[in-house]
């Protein structure tokens, strides 16, 4: 007879190792799963180290059967999100569970009850911790590994979540692009658009990295201000993320658009380091770092992570110019294919630009909501 299920909130100061280990218990047999670096995940969850916690309340829940941890979830109140949108929305994230409806129900109900006690009126997720980080539940595209900073989960997760009265809030799409050659008419059309807009596109200058980060931050917090689910990043969060990304940035595929002496937009693409991380099982020491460095030399895929334009420079075709430049310079650097993600399902301007270059939707991630 199976041991009874217990769902409990981790006490403040309690080690996070069992919470982290649940991901390995659930996903280790999935050949497409890419184990995260344990040290990075521990830093993200640490209330004293990650700047997200400076403006949020987070509770961690663990589902246990006897001595075994069989599931986990985080309940999140992001005060900046609610102030920005004028809402009372809570979030759930870091969800992992065995294929057991009792486990999923126990975890999600515990998170919802915790959020309701704090005055939240609905719950949205999954988000780890917000739309500025990993978010969305994979609902289509399970047969390929996730790109860097994207999620992956077992096929049964959507059924477990939907069984607990969660319904679709928004789909987030991932497009796949191959090096099939750039149509000359597209090159000519984009060049005309760029000249008409009076925009110059240049690659990232790593020698002026701090200045470049400051310029990108200015664009970022204005470019997405009207987007679904967006929440501005604090200076501390932006600097934290920039520090984490700097070692993996390839400046030849990161671009800034300038017009009239100001930065009008930016495009950030990253080599898909998940191709290398897959081989280290979450640990850099004692041998993981050498394996990571060796495998990273073989990366031939990119992820276009984010692309933003200040309000006055939208609908001028600059997004297409960014995509084209990333394609051309990426191929020149030896990248052969890649992902553009995530794209809101109703962001038709971005979707059309990608589809003109032969991109196709190959993964769908879903944000779920439930009233409280």
Structural domain count: 2
- Helix-strand sequence: EHHEEHEHEEEEHEHEHHEEHHEHEHE
Shape: globular
Q: Biggest β-sheet, characterized?
A: 13 strands, mixed
Q: Please tally the β strands and state the result.
A: 15
What is the CATH class name of the largest domain?
Answer: Alpha Beta
Q: Using the CA coordinates, give the radius of gyration.
A: 21 Å
CATH homologous group name of the largest domain: Gcn5-related N-acetyltransferase (GNAT)
What CATH architecture label of the largest domain applies?
A: 3-Layer(aba) Sandwich
Helix content: 25-40%
> Could you name the ranges where pLDDT drops below 50 across 5 or more consecutive residues?
none
Instruction: Figure out the total of helices.
Output: 12
Beta content comes to 25-35%
CATH fold category name of the largest domain: Aminopeptidase
Taking the alpha carbons of the first and last residues, their distance comes to 34 Å
Task: Summarize the topology.
Layout: E1 5-9, H1 17-27, H2 38-45, E2 56-65, E3 68-78, H3 79-85, E4 89-97, H4 101-117, E5 122-125, E6 127-128, E7 134-135, E8 137-140, H5 157-162, E9 167-178, H6 184-197, E10 200-203, H7 209-223, H8 235-245, E11 255-259, E12 262-271, H9 274-277, H10 288-296, E13 301-309, H11 318-332, E14 337-344, H12 348-356, E15 360-371
Parallel strand pairs: 4-5, 13-14
Antiparallel strand pairs: 1-2, 2-3, 3-4, 5-15, 6-7, 8-15, 9-14, 9-15, 10-11, 11-12, 12-13
How would you describe the overall organization of this protein?
- It is a single chain.
- The protein is α+β, with helices and mostly antiparallel strands.
- It has two domains: 5-173, Gcn5-related N-acetyltransferase (GNAT) (Aminopeptidase, 3-Layer(aba) Sandwich), CATH 3.40.630; 177-364, Aminopeptidase (3-Layer(aba) Sandwich), CATH 3.40.630.
- The chain is built from twelve helices and 15 strands.
- The strands form two sheets. Strands 1, 2, 3, 4, 5, 8, 9, 10, 11, 12, 13, 14 and 15 form a 13-stranded mixed beta sheet that branches.
- Helix 6 packs across helix 11.
- The two termini are 34 Å apart.
- The model has no long low-confidence stretch (mean pLDDT 91).
């Amino acid at each position: 007879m199976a041991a009874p299920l217990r769902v409990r909130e981790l006490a403040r100061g309690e080690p996070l190792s069992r919470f982290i280990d649940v991901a390995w218990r659930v996903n280790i047999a999935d050949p497409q799963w890419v184990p995260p670096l344990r040290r990075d995940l521990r830093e993200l969850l640490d209330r004293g180290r990650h700047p997200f916690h400076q403006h949020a309340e987070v509770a961690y829940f663990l589902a246990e059967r006897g001595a075994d941890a069989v599931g986990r979830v985080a309940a999140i109140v992001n005060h900046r999100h609610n102030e920005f949108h004028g809402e009372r929305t809570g979030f759930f994230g870091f969800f992992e569970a065995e294929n057991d409806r009792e486990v999923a129900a126990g975890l999600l109900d515990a998170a919802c009850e915790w959020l309701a006690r704090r005055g939240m009126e609905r719950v949205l997720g999954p988000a780890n911790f917000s739309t500025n980080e990993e978010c969305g539940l994979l609902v289509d595209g399970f047969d390929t590994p996730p790109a860097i900073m994207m999620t992956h989960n077992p096929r049964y997760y959507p059924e477990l979540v939907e069984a607990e009265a969660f319904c679709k809030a928004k789909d987030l799409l991932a497009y796949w692009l191959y090096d099939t050659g750039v149509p000359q008419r597209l090159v000519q059309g984009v060049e005309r658009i760029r000249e008409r807009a009076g925009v110059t596109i240049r690659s990232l200058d790593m020698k002026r990295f701090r200045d470049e980060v400051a310029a990108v931050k200015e664009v970022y917090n204005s470019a997405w201000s009207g987007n679904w689910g967006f929440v501005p990043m604090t200076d501390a969060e932006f600097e934290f993320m920039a520090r984490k990304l700097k070692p993996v940035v390839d400046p030849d595929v990161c671009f800034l658009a300038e017009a009239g002496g100001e930065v009008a937009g930016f495009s950030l693409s990253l080599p898909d380091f998940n191709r290398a991380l897959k081989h280290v099982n979450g640990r850099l020491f004692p041998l993981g770092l050498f394996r990571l460095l060796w495998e990273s030399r073989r990366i031939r895929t990119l992820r276009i992570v984010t692309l933003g334009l200040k309000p006055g420079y939208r609908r001028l075709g600059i997004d297409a110019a960014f995509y084209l430049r990333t394609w051309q310079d990426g191929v020149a650097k030896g990248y052969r294919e890649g992902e553009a993600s995530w794209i809101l399902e109703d962001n038709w301007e971005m979707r059309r630009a990608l589809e003109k270059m032969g991109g196709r939707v190959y993964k769908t991630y879903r944000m779920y909501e439930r009233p409280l």
